[in-house]
């Protein structure tokens, strides 16, 4: 049951009402309509009666067949008066009498109390069952009436078409349209079935192959048996799926059949002109044929003069049935057409060259396409071309180099490493080996192996030592500087960056001296005396890289710079948007998607907006989960996301994320070795599992001693959770003592020491620490600063200075206004002790109508749909939305949805 949570919630919400409700559930075959209905049934109490009738293709001529099938599904049917069934099935009776008898049957079987009536596949239903369905809506009582249907099979003459129009006119109908699974949902589906996450390329291949249709995915997996999921991409279609798809072609005339077969060979996206050339049809003839194929639902128009099969598997089933000579001839015709017109679609040229067996043309198209697709920010397309060429020339250095870089840009680190190693092995000169090592240095960092990165950097230094001062050595200087910068060896990073800048300028290589500036600036901002110079250097690098068209360097500069700019959140957000634009132009997925949304979430945290931060990370995980991208061996967003969920008190959700990180991490890196146990400790401590927390604390302190990684909010979070979890002061004191960063962590150290002092009963000492930590300027984030003021207020309360305590509480309120969870709970408790009452905020600040609007917004309704649902004007709906955003201090409808979900 993947990707249908919102739809299921909408149906369950309808069932909770006291009035009759109608839901029309539409979607293509295999999309999961029946599965969704069954999931709804699973969550119902046994006392709720259910009538579930199914129409079949042969029921069109059998009156009331859907009702009769529904009666058979109900355990109460034995209590019915047999005479009612006789009336319904007696063809000699008037239609009015038979419908009235049917309604009485439904009423008896579904009352008293709430009930569910489902008529499935109404597109096949007889007209009498359709008429009865409409009349059921008039019956009183708390009844949810659900109809499922396939929109593409409802013609204007079908009785269901008129029914849909009348229902919309007479009743408040909830229309639920099930769409295909996206790439992320396909990955989740595959993981839920197989128990392990699929590789990105496997998920992408199966998503493209099935179009995200759950039925087709399930059938492919069944046919695969116990074989590795990665082998599924190339396995033939199961016979039942292939036969079902081919049946769509049974009533095509010979001309349409030939057009469909040609389109199947031409690829996933078929240009109109190419199809016309291959089939030798005139434009009017082809337009008429395609219009009919689109009307039948066999093909869809995906763009101007471009067509695709509605189901990619239909194309596959057709190609599998064709003779090899027939396929090859069509490829040859397509290739000659593309070459004669000078087509720049190198991927399409290479595809048809391979299909035609013309491998030299294929390799030539691959070489040309690599540079083109990398330049336009399409690394995955470039990788596919490189691999196509490598099938013919497996040791070609140019193809290996471009393929490895493309795989890295696309975030496919395993593929990038494999191609990088092959590139290094095939390299014939020191310069070529140095180029390969440069990428392998970066890849070692990306996969979380700092030791391997240093080893590769040493290899690179040895490789370039005998070289003259040429481009290979200049690029290597920049790569070595980056390795030192990533390893926090600031002095050496600056030394090698200066070498790269000097040699890059001498040789006129902007990509080198700009890279040197990026590495030097990134190193400088890591220590106090260099922050200003680092910011200046990164700013210069970003501007100059943009002017030079060095998009990747421009994106990296801004990614390392945006939250250090002096202008504040607005300027930071603008810089983050520029970073994303540059990353997209470079095709660098990890910055364009994962880092971008992580950056937006961090900005929300810096503004004290916990709901906004969670919404951003949820958006990131929806978009990026399909890539199953990992960094440093774990879920890219996992540590941050789990930490925010713990902040919000969503312990069960945090548990799920933490378990996923722990299971997916085979070898802990410096980050995960401390962060994952720290999150586990926080979770069990918040749950009151003291002994388990005590064991995990020992693991955390051991990890800190080994890695030296601690400081900032890490110690504060551990101490906060440990105190709630019942651990003693002496057990937690080593955590505060472990903070080791002399510049960034002063405020955090004072905060941690104050927490320990307060827990030890030293309220005067704790008060001094809290006040010092929150004094301006402070490195603390708004929510943490709010907790510092709350701590100071507690100490003042204990010391008897109530007025000063109240002042700290008032200072904390705006800092925590858009936060939630344990920090806000502490503030609320202290307000009560100080006689300040509870401020109106959050849900309590909304009117009943605004709360209703917020729930509907979470369903994804537009202002126009809100207006129709609530019988208000679209302008009034917009006012409600604006008021909700203002009162909750949120910025988008997505954040409202996240807020509703968090509070549901």
UniProtKB/TrEMBL annotation:
InterPro entries: AAA_16 (IPR041664), P-loop_NTPase (IPR027417), Sig_transdc_resp-reg_C-effctor (IPR016032), TPR-like_helical_dom_sf (IPR011990), TPR_rpt (IPR019734), Tscrpt_reg_LuxR_C (IPR000792), WH-like_DNA-bd_sf (IPR036388). SMART domains: HTH_LUXR, TPR. SUPFAM superfamilies: C-terminal effector domain of the bipartite response regulators, P-loop containing nucleoside triphosphate hydrolases, TPR-like. The keyword 4Fe-4S does not apply. Transmembrane segments: none annotated. Residues 839-904 form the HTH luxR-type domain. Keywords: ATP-binding, Nucleotide-binding, TPR repeat. GO terms for cellular component: cytoplasm. CDD domains: LuxR_C_like. This is HTH luxR-type domain-containing protein. It comes from Dactylosporangium siamense.
């Amino acid at each position: 049951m993947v990707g249908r949570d919102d739809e299921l919630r909408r149906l369950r919400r309808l069932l909770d009402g006291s009035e009759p409700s109608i839901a029309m559930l539409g979607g293509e075959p295999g999309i999961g309509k029946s599965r969704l209905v069954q999931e709804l049934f699973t969550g119902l109490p046994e006392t709720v009666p259910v009538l579930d009738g199914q129409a079949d293709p042969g029921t069109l001529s059998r009156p009331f067949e859907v009702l009769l099938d529904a009666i058979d599904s109900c355990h109460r049917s034995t209590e019915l008066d047999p005479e009612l069934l006789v009336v319904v099935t007696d063809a000699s009776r008037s239609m009015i009498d038979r419908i009235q008898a049917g309604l009485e049957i439904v009423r008896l079987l579904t009352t008293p109390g709430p009930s569910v009536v489902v008529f499935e596949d109404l597109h096949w239903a007889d007209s009498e069952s359709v008429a009865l369905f409409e009349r059921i809506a008039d019956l009183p009582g708390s009844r949810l009436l659900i109809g499922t249907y396939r929109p593409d099979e409802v013609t204007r003459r079908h009785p269901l078409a008129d029914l849909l129009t009348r229902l919309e006119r007479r009743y408040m109908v909830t229309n639920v349209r099930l769409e295909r699974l996206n790439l992320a949902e396909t990955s989740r589906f595959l993981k839920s079935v197989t128990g392990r996450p699929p590789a990105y390329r496997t998920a992408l291949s199966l998503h493209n192959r099935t179009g995200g249709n759950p039925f087709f995915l399930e059938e492919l997996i069944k046919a695969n048996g116990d074989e590795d999921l990665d082998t599924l991409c190339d396995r033939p279609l199961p016979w039942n799926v292939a036969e079902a798809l081919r049946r769509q072609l049974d009533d095509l005339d010979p001309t349409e059949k030939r057009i469909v077969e040609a389109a199947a060979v031409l690829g996933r996206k078929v240009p109109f002109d190419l199809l016309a050339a291959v089939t030798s049809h005139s434009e009017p003839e082809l337009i008429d044929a395609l219009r009919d194929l689109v009307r039948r639902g066999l093909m869809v128009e995906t763009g101007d003069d471009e067509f695709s099969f509605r189901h990619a598997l239909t194309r596959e089933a057709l190609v599998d049935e064709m003779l090899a000579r027939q396929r090859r001839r069509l490829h040859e015709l397509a290739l000659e057409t593309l070459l004669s017109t000078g087509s720049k679609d190198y991927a399409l040229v290479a595809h048809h060259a391979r299909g035609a067996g013309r491998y030299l043309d294929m390799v030539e198209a691959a070489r040309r396409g690599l540079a083109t697709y990398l330049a336009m920010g399409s690394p995955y397309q470039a990788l596919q071309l490189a691999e196509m060429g490598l099938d013919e020339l497996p040791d070609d250095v140019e193809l290996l180099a471009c393929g490895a870089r493309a795989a890295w840009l696309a975030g496919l680190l395993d593929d990038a490493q494999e191609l990088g190693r092959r590139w290094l092995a095939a390299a014939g000169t020191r310069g070529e080996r140095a180029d390969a090592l440069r990428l392998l240095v970066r890849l070692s960092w990306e996969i979380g192996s700092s030791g391997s990165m240093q080893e590769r950097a040493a290899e690179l230094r040895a490789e370039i030592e005998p070289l003259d001062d040429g481009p290979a050595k200049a690029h290597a200087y920049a790569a070595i500087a980056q390795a030192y910068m990533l390893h926090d060896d600031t002095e050496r990073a600056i030394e090698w960056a200066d070498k790269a800048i000097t040699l890059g300028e001498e040789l006129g290589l902007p990509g080198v001296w700009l890279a040197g500036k990026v590495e030097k600036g990134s190193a400088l901002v890591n220590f106090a005396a260099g922050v200003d110079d680092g910011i200046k250097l990164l700013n210069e690098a970003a501007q100059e890289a943009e002017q030079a068209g060095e998009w990747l360097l421009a994106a990296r500069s801004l990614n390392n710079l945006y939250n250090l700019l002096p202008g504040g959140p607005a300027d930071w957000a603008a810089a983050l948007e520029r970073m994303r634009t540059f990353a997209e132009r470079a095709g660098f997925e990890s910055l364009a998607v994962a880092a971008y949304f992580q950056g937006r979430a961090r900005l929300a945290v810096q503004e004290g907006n916990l709901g906004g931060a969670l919404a951003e990370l949820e958006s990131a995980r929806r978009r990026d989960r399909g890539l199953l991208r990992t960094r440093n061996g774990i879920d890219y967003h996992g540590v941050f996301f789990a930490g925010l969920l713990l902040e919000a008190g969503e312990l069960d959700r945090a548990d799920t994320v933490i378990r996923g990180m722990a299971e997916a991490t085979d070898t802990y890196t410096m980050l995960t070795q401390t962060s994952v146990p720290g999150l586990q400790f926080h979770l069990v401590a918040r749950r009151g599992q003291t002994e388990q927390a005590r064991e995990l604390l020992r693991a955390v302190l051991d990890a800190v001693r080994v890695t030296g990684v601690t400081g900032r909010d890490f110690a504060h979070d551990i101490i906060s959770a440990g105190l709630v979890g019942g651990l003693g002061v002496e057990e937690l004191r080593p955590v505060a003592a472990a903070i080791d960063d002399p510049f960034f962590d002063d405020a955090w150290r004072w905060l941690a020491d104050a927490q320990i002092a307060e827990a030890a009963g030293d309220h005067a000492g704790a008060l001094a620490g809290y006040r010092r930590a929150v004094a301006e300027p402070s490195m603390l984030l708004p929510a943490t600063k709010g907790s510092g003021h709350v701590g100071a207020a507690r100490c003042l309360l204990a010391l008897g200075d109530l007025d000063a305590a109240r002042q700290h509480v008032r200072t904390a309120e705006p800092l925590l206004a858009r936060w939630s969870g344990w920090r806000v709970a502490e503030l609320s408790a202290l307000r009560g002790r100080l006689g300040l009452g509870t401020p109106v905020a959050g849900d309590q600040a909304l009117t009943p109508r605004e709360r209703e609007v917020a729930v509907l917004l979470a369903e994804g309704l537009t202002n126009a749909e809100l207006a129709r649902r609530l019988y208000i004007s679209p302008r009034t709906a917009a006012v409600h939305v604006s008021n909700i955003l203002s009162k909750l201090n949120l910025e988008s409808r997505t954040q409202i949805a996240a807020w509703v979900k968090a509070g549901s």
